[in-house]
Amino acid sequence: MTQHHVPPPAATDVAIPTTAGIEVKSIDWVPLNERHGKPGSLFSLWFMSNANLTTLATGMVGVAMGGNFLMSVLAIVMGVIVGTIFTAFHSAQGPQLGLPQMIQSRAQFGYRGVAIVCLVVVASIVGFNIFNQMLGAEVLTATTGVDAGAWWYVLITVVALTIAVVGYDWIHRVQSWLTWLFLATFGVFTVVAFFALPLPAGAFSLDGFNWAAFLVQFAAAAAYALGWAPYVSDYSRYLPPQTSPSKALFYTSSGVIVGAGWLMLLGAFVASLFVDADPVGAIAAAADQILPGLGLPLLWAALPALVTVITINIYAASIELITVVDSFRPVKPTLRARVIACSVIAGLAFIGAAFSTGAFLDSFSSFLTVLLYVLVPWTSVNLVDYYFVRRGRYAVAEMFRPNGVYGAWGGRGIAAYVIGIVAMIPFVVTTWFVGPAAAAMGDIDIALFVGLIVSAVAYLVLARNLDLRGERELAEQEAAGTGVRSVSFGG
Predict the structure, then answer these.
(1) Average pLDDT, the chain
(2) Start-to-end C-alpha separation, the chain
């Protein structure tokens, strides 16, 4: 195999050129001379990634099921915090390893085995982008009065794809600029709305607590926040390795919690005011009640955030797709490869949006629930390996060798992942299937906690006989050669 993206033996001071300012890297390791930026940039990136109408729609799920505003607040706050905890800990891995998230997962799932999880992540990202494009098209139709059908999807796809192709630095810049636009528009609107628009009677009552709606809203919020985990370190991997893991964790978690929590709570608020309204109609109606005609400019202000979250997803999914291909046939990580991968991901979401039918909220809540089920065992295995088994010590070059120390198929990681999913089945609650254990508990969904615990325990047990001495020696040799400090968690 041609070792085209193995870390070099030593870092140099010569900057590696880009192609006309366009990022050329994808799944390859980021050399020290290309590391740049500060962890504070992670706040605006993850704030704006969550501050959009898709997040708002997620916060409407509980009310749509018959819950009230207070119940939704409790479910949203708890769900976002739970999901963000796992996402933020993944973000801290980026600066230390300089790798995309799923390349690092080769240590648990193997050089080829990681393709299993990557395909799941690609499917989830494409699913998110289908819903994002549907909302974007609704906004364009509502603001222009022109129902252009699939042509709106074409416009949204082209803009999002262009930013994704330009790459990492411009994605960070755009998200930073949009943060100020969003605060100036939705920030003011939110404050005024909560004082000017009275909620219906019973909105703050806990009498007749709707447990089914609470658990669905909790799961949706947790899944949404957790949905970033498989690629959150893709957006921190260019940071210098000296970046404090605690700072990366703080800025990522605060960005997700503030962005997701705010927009979901706003979603629950407008859903309580306008029952059965879609996200676009509800936010426009709320704005028009405050000031007639305000809905139009507010929707215009919401559109860029929808486009850039599609960008975030295209960029990340392209890395996942290249990883899948590279797992079976070596891929030279050129700009051309990244452009092709980005185009494929954008095209799949475009086709999905163009042919989608059905009620938005019903489909979206079901999608988020399934996403939670398939991501929870992976995040459990990855974090346990990083923080408790290998404790941050990885031989990066070996992740690019199919017959390296991590093997082609990581039996332990794959087994723990499958065991976690199987253990969750009796506890799942979806529109298509309710597990027997969940049914016995009155359709209470605790599959999230079952998956996290079972996968973690299974991996810890299976990893007891891992021979880590050779891996650590290779990692120390790499650290000495590249200048990357050896990282250790807990000893």
Answers:
(1) 89
(2) 35
Closest among 106, 416, 101, 122 to 230, alpha carbons compared: 101
SS (H, E, C) 402-461: CCCCCCCCCHHHHHHHHHHHHHHHHHCECCCCECHHHHHCCCCCCHHHHHHHHHHHHHHH
For 84-102, write each residue's pLDDT tens digit: 999 999 998 999 999 999 9
Taking residue 198's Cβ as centre, other Cβ atoms within 10 Å add up to 9
Tell me how far CA of residue 63 lies from CA of 208, 214, 267, 278, in angstroms.
14, 9, 9, 12
Cβ atoms of 67 and 214 closer than 8 Å: yes
Q: Is 19 helix (H, G, I), strand (E, B) or coil?
A: strand
What is the spatial distance between Cα 251 and Cα 354, in angstroms, rounded to a whole number?
Answer: 36
Q: pTM here?
A: 0.90
Nearest Cα residue to 296 out of 131, 135, 132, 141? 141
Give the residue extent of every domain in the chain.
32-372
Q: How far apart are CA 410 and CA 392, in angstroms?
A: 18
Tell me which CATH code domain 32-372 carries. Answer: 1.10.4160.10
Residue type, 272: S
What's the pLDDT tens digit per position in 313-336? 999 999 999 999 999 999 998 999
Q: Give the CA distances from residue 381 to residues 90, 146, 389, 390, 400, in Å, rounded to whole numbers and listed in that order.
A: 12, 48, 10, 12, 20
